[in-house]
Design a protein that fits this description.
Elements: E1 7-8, H1 12-29, E2 35-40, H2 44-53, E3 59-69, E4 72-81, E5 91-99, H3 103-114, E6 119-127, E7 137-141, E8 145-146, H4 152-165, H5 171-179, H6 184-197
Parallel strand pairs: 1-8, 2-3, 2-5, 5-6, 6-7
Antiparallel strand pairs: 3-4
Helix pairs in contact: 1-2, 4-6
């Protein structure tokens, strides 16, 4: 998936507005989850916002690990932290930031069904057209690599590492990030911090 490495850099406000739309879709659909499960780590921020918008404080966690870097994945995702609450007999809303390959979301859904969930629906902010699963609720389809506000430094670090491995300059990626809307001062700040550690 790294071939398409155009970037999309949504702001906190854009994400909030997309989550507001998703919450309205869930409400219109008549789905009232007993528990909201955020997929660690990227699903935590949107899960917390959805919890607020749906006025549902029953928030739990599950961790599925798959991505090694920008556009680089392990062979298959694995559950590294099982769901943090009982879901037996409950309607569950799984929240993550993006359905990319769909493999992690499929695994999480299977994990929750195995734990006795009555019904599992999935909500993501973004959906990519090649995903194995189409979320029940999502706001935007994209083929770009999304840089969320809660992972900017991590994304820059992984891009720097990728460029080093491939023997190329970070400048081209930096240009794409700036063009996509990432603050150049922020990029420079994180680059300095990354270089100081190496």
């Amino acid at each position: 998936m790294s071939e398409q490495l155009g970037f999309e850099v949504p702001s906190w406000e854009q994400i909030y507005m997309m989550l507001l739309e998703i919450a309205e879709k869930i409400t219109t659909d008549g789905f009232e989850p007993d528990v909201i499960v955020g997929v660690c780590r990227g699903g935590w921020p949107p899960a917390r916002v959805i919890s607020d918008l749906l006025e549902n404080a029953e928030l739990a966690n599950v961790k599925a690990e798959f991505y090694l870097g920008v556009g680089e994945t392990k062979g298959e995702p694995v559950i590294t932290q099982p769901v943090s609450t009982s879901v037996r007999g409950k309607k569950v809303l799984v929240v993550d930031e993006v359905a990319d390959t769909g493999k992690s979301l499929r695994l999480v859904k299977e994990h929750l069904m195995e734990r006795g969930a009555l019904q599992v629906k999935v909500a993501t902010i973004y959906y990519k057209p090649w995903s194995l699963i189409i979320p029940d609720y999502y706001e935007k389809e994209t083929s770009h690599w999304i840089v969320f506000p809660w992972e900017i430094k991590e994304t820059i670090r992984k891009l720097v590492e990728k460029c080093r491995r491939e023997g190329r300059s970070f400048e081209e990626e930096k240009g794409k990030l700036v063009e996509a809307g990432l603050n150049p001062d922020l990029i420079e700040r994180f680059l300095r911090e990354i270089m100081e550690k190496n």
